[in-house]
Specification:
This protein folds into two domains: 228 residues, 3-Layer(aba) Sandwich (Rossmann fold), CATH 3.40.50.410; 45 residues, no CATH class. About 4% of the residues have low confidence. Strand 4, helix 3 and strand 5 form a beta-alpha-beta unit. With 287 residues, the chain is α/β, with parallel strands linked by helices. It is built from eight helices and eleven strands. A six-stranded mixed sheet has the order 6-5-4-7-8-11, sandwiched between helices. A three-stranded antiparallel sheet has the order 1-3-2. Helix 1 crosses helix 3, helix 3 runs antiparallel to helix 4 and helix 5 runs parallel beside helix 6.
Length: 287
């Protein structure tokens, strides 16, 4: 499945596309507020005893007879954190979601970024501790291959809160989910943004979920909580279902745009590499 040679070949093709389109980086560009001896010029400062004389701007000294040193921005290591929805509502989309995460994590590891993966449902559990380098590709793929569907509910806010407690340093946070949570998604959005992470959402959907083809008296059971509800479905109810589904998904997209969160909607009948290619062409994991 995720460790098949054919799948690995498709991952390598996507990595080559990354190098062509993005110059070899999947993550958002993050520069430290600290100043030091990096590559990108930031500012000047007055020279003090003990400063590195190699950073003195001798051109300014020749014009103004003032000793100043150049300051540079430091690029900090950033971890790309993947939050994968493993709740039972993801059943028909689970392989597709894992393929998308595997592809993005493969690219990040190949680009020398750190990667961690967490399962989210009614709570958050680690699937892959922070890893670095191409040698961690197979442990990453095996972790995703063995990931189970679990939990009795989807609580994105609780998982976002737990993520904030565990991950103190700002990084890139990629949440892959259908976003079908009883309490909604707004609180999770706010909590992830509070941590000053660069947040990116990939909403994975099944076309069959977008409409209701059932008619008559039915006994519905929630795939997560197990709760039953008897309802009578007419054409009017089916139309309201489709409208409510569209309103929910449009609301998520609007919330992401309002808060500066990168967003892609992906259906599981689309090849996973096509979805990743769209993300690459949009500029990678940035808003």
């Amino acid at each position: 499945m995720l460790t098949d040679p054919e799948f690995l070949k498709r991952l390598e093709t996507l990595f080559l596309l990354t190098r062509k389109v993005l110059g070899g980086s999947m993550r958002a560009d993050r520069r430290s507020q600290k100043k030091g001896s990096g590559l990108n010029f930031a500012d000047y400062a007055e020279y003090h005893a003990g400063d590195d004389y190699r950073h003195v701007d001798w051109n300014i000294y020749g014009r103004l007879e003032a000793l100043v040193v150049k300051l540079y921005e430091l690029e900090e290591d950033v971890t790309v954190h993947f939050l994968l929805d493993c709740s039972p509502s993801m059943d028909s989309k689970f392989l597709f979601a894992r393929q998308v995460v595997a592809a993005l994590a493969y690219i990040a590891l190949s680009c020398h970024d750190k990667v961690s993966i967490h399962a989210v449902a009614d709570k958050m559990t680690p699937l892959l501790r922070p890893a670095h380098g191409r040698s961690k590709v197979f442990p990453m793929l095996r972790a995703l291959e063995d990931a189970p569907l679990e939990g009795k509910d989807t609580d994105l806010a609780a998982c976002a809160d737990e993520f904030q407690h565990r991950v103190k340093r700002p990084g890139v946070c990629v949440l892959v989910s259908d976003f079908f949570a009883p309490a909604g998604y707004a609180e999770a959005v706010k909590r992830l943004k509070w941590g000053r992470h660069d947040v990116f959402f990939i909403q994975t959907l099944d076309p069959a979920e977008m409409k209701c083809d059932w008619k008559g008296d039915v006994d519905l059971q929630c795939c997560e909580t197990g709760a039953h509800r008897k309802v009578t479905i007419t054409s009017a109810e089916a139309a309201r279902y489709a409208a409510a589904m569209k309103e929910w998904n449009d609301g998520l997209q609007s919330e992401c745009a309002r808060r500066g969160i990168g967003y892609v909607q992906a259906f599981n009948d689309t090849p996973f590499d096509r979805v990743v290619e769209i993300i690459l062409r949009k500029g990678g994991l940035v808003a």
